[in-house]
Structures are given as C-alpha cells and as structure tokens.
Amino acid sequence: MADxxxxxxxxxxxxxxxxxxxxxxxxxxxxxxxxxxxxxxxGRRDALPSDLPASRLAITACxxxxxxxxxxxxxxxxxxxxxxxxxxxxxxxxxxxxxxTHGTIATAHLLEQARRCDxxxxxxxxxxxxxxxxxxxxxxxxxxxLLPQSLYGASKLAGEGLVxxxxxxxxxxxxxxxxxxxxxxxxxxxxxxxxFGKLDADPSQLEVLGDGRQAKSYLRTEDCVEGMLVGAxxxxxxVDVFNLxxxxxxxxxxxxxxxxxxxxxRARVVFTGGERGWAGDIPQQLLSxxxxxxxxxxxxxxxxxxxxxxxxxLLARRASPG
Amino acid sequence: MADxxxxxxxxxxxxxxxxxxxxxxxxxxxxxxxxxxxxxxxGRRDALPSDLPASRLAITACxxxxxxxxxxxxxxxxxxxxxxxxxxxxxxxxxxxxxxTHGTIATAHLLEQARRCDxxxxxxxxxxxxxxxxxxxxxxxxxxxLLPQSLYGASKLAGEGLVxxxxxxxxxxxxxxxxxxxxxxxxxxxxxxxxFGKLDADPSQLEVLGDGRQAKSYLRTEDCVEGMLVGAxxxxxxVDVFNLxxxxxxxxxxxxxxxxxxxxxRARVVFTGGERGWAGDIPQQLLSxxxxxxxxxxxxxxxxxxxxxxxxxLLARRASPG
Lengths: 322, 322
Fold this sequence. Notes:
2 copies of one chain form a homodimer. Chain A is an alpha/beta fold.
C-alpha cells in the first residue's frame, strides 16, 4: 500500500496531451496507477510510456464530446483529473459548436459518469481566459464579473460551473485551476511552435499577429503539474479555485525576438498591427498567484525564463528530431 | 416610425412564461412588434394577448434545446430577449441533463442563429444563483469566484459565458441580468404557489422545507421587467451585467406566516429542519442593486411588500379563478 500502486487509480482525461501526459508521468513516478481517457484528436500515444502493464497505465480511446466515458474506465477511481479540451482558442471562433461539444458537453458527460460511479474527487483545468479583459491585474481568483471573450473561454467557464454544481449537489470535492499559458518544447501548438514554423517557411522575416505589445504570463508544463498537485492535495472546501501562472508577463515582441535570436538573428520581425492577435485574444493577462503560493507552490522560473527554456528545447528537438 | 410599430421587432424567448409574457405585454404597450419563441413546456398561450395580428405579435412554438430556432423567427430582429430556461432548480438536481439541454445548449442554439441572422443585440436573464453561497452580501456584480450550487445555476453561468463570448467574438452587444426571486400572482410555480397548494391539501398545518431561516430577496415581475428595460437601454460596453432584486430579504418563516395569515391563520407552521430547503438551495441571498440604481431604476416595493402583493393576488385569483 505504501508505494501507492495498490491504491485506487487516478483517471486523467486528455492524458495523452501536452499537460496531461506530463501529469500522467508524474503520477506514475509517485507510484499511482493511472487510467488515461483521450480522444486522440491531438493527444499522442507516444507521449505516454509504452512499457507499463495495463494495471499501471490503462489507455482508453473515447470521445467525451460524443458520449459518457465507459463506466469501467471511471469506476473505482480515487479522483479524476479532467484536462481534456480543445486547445486552439482561435479555431473555436471559426467553428462555434466546437468548444460547446468538446468542452462543455464533454465535461457534463464526464461528471455524470463520475456521479454514477461514485467518484468523489474532481480536478479541473480551467483557464485564465475565463477572466476576459480583466480590469484588475494581477487578477485574483475573486475577480468578477467573468466575461470571456472567446467560445473557448465560455466553455471553460461553463465547465467550472458544472464542476461546482456537481460537487455541491452530489457531495463531490473539486479543485479548479485557472491556467496561464503553459509551454514546453514537446508541444506541437502554441505561439513558439507557430513562430518556429513561420521561420521555417520564410527565414528572412517573422510575421507576428497584432502590434507585439500583447503580453501574457507563461508557465512551464512541469511547474503547472506541480502546482496542480499542491493545490489538489489540501483544503476542506467542497470546491476551491486556484490561478496558476508566473509572476510576470512576456510580450509577443520579446518572444519573437528570442525566437529570432535563437534561429541565428537574421529575420526581420514584422507586426500585423492592432492590439489583439485575433478576435477573442486577451492582449494583457497576468494572474495573481498569491493563493497557491500560500499553499507552498511557486513557479521555478519567470515567464521569460519559461520562454527561454522552451526555445532551447525546441532548438534541441530540431537538432535531433524524434 | 415614431410609434415603433414599423421598427424592427423584438424576439422574446420564453415569451409565454411568467416573466416573458409580462415583458411581451410591456413591449407591445411601447408599440413594439414582438416575436415570441416558446416550447410551451411551462409557458401558456393564454398568458399572451390573442387579439393581435401576427404582424404585431407572432408566436412560434420551438424547442431551443433540440435545435436552432427557425431563421425566419430571428432574422430582422432589433434585439433578442433570451428568457427561456428551465424554472425548477430542484428538478435539475434529479435530472442532471435537463439544464444542460434546456439552458446551456438552448442558449448556444439561439446565439448561433442570432449570429447567422446578424442580430446585433442580446438581453439575457441570468440568476442570482450563479453566485452560489456568496461570502459578500449584498453581493455586487463584481463578486467572484462564481461557484453555483445547482445545475440550474451552472447552466445560467454557462449562458452568461456564451453570451459574453458571442458578443466579443462577433461584435454583438449584450446585457445580462442576474435576477433575484421573481414573484407575481399569475405564476404557477415558486414558493408561494407551493405553500398555497400545501394548505389546500392540509389546512391544519403548513410544512416548510428547511429551518425557515433561509432568507432571499423577492422582486415583483413588473419591477423586474422595468429593470431590464432600463438596464438594456444604455451604456456603450459590449457586455454589461446587472443584478435585479430588492433592497432587503424575506425569510421563509415570514413568508409562511404571511400565507397562513392570509388563509385564515389556523394552520400550524412545521419546519423540516436544516439550513437549506434542498440540496443546491442558496439559504441566504441578497443582491447589491446599486449598479442598476445608478441607471435610475429602483424596486417599487420591499421584498416583504412584493410577497404581500403576491399573496393578495393569489387570494384574489382563488376567489375568482380563471
């Protein structure tokens, strides 16, 4: 019992995704048994260990947006980490039903099966975008009203409400994390991935959406996972909400310059203009992380340091792909 | 043009319901053309005028939870008042998919058709229950985090997020109203309706859910409608949120005593006990109404006065039914 491998397993939805797979590896290192649920729309099987017996790591392909997950995959779990979501905020604006199905309805399907299977604990990854254009920065968890700018943000807010209602109505415990921009070199999406790709296509210039002054807080995936473990562990409230981010912001201009420097410094940075990168973009975002800090967690680096570390990883990955 | 009858019509979803039909009558009095959308699950055709041509009042039966409303019913509208929702908070706890379908998904269906038909203005009735158990009372619109206790509350919060996201992503203007408990004598649901029904069944005693100390703010339907008209009219923000309620609270015990007195004073009031009437109930609720008050609106009566007026209407209705 002491090594945790005989304790009830953890379910991780989106467990083959960028953050999910890092969480799964971390839980496995703690000796936990893990069940991954993923629709593999963007998650990858090779992000997960392939050398473990199903008793340690069970992987179920299922689409939470289409139906409730199989009861067998949920029953007996100590807790569910619900990370599955769409990942491209912009795409949700072009396809208005996307986040409703794969965010809100998926969350409802999962919670309903959790209720039926009597799982008592839910951890939910929400997002800083639920705050919309917050007039208070750093933005604390107590900020309101929550007026998301994007349908992705709307689905995250809807998920928070569902998690809270299920917890209060059916006696579950829930922890909600509002994440800043999470980065690492294994991700195949996000601003750094996009900028590297643009330089591949045209090494002479780097086009950046917006005026470059949009500034957000970036956090490393491993810091995010540790923060969730810290925040999920304690407290007696039925539902609690924590921001997870860095203490500072990095502008898009700074990020572009770091990428150009890393790629040899020859490209000219060109801005498309406008204070937002796209409709629904949040141009300025900085979360207050005082609440989770009081629980003993802090990011291992600044926002700029998280970008630097990720740029270095992306360079190393290009030097030796695969 | 001056009388408004040739101006673009208003769409009212849930327009055959208790608040919706009062809003429709008010808009008609202003000379507006009105299109009602209702699934008639609880709305009643006889709540609406029957002597108007379809050019003044068009009624379309449709279920927003099942599909988008017909484009013809939405196209050309100056604005949509989206009031359609489930109305029994308790039922949503027993049937967990109900508020998802008839709240959240219904709202998404409506907004998507509004976007396609290029309707530029949305008014949405949310609820005080989005605040959950608020630690600040009177609760201002800036309160957070929003942790609803019921699936009904979760669906109202989800609706707020969708309205906000559609407004910001597609250039609409939106006004959101978080309503206290709305009462009038025509309603066939709610605490007064329930207590009258219980006394009919057993005139000797009146069973009250909870310990009777639950205290909420009650607002008359006509005040609610005027508040929405005031709040919807002004301001330049893409999205704005207003509480609508009374300045004070009325306890369940007070309400029960008013009902018993109105019915002859012979019944004994019996409490089932516990600080909540049911799982998901919000035992203490008082909204700050300073924001809408600064726009020039105020309730025409206290919370207790709203109860008194409604009890008198219920008595009168029993004296001459129909």
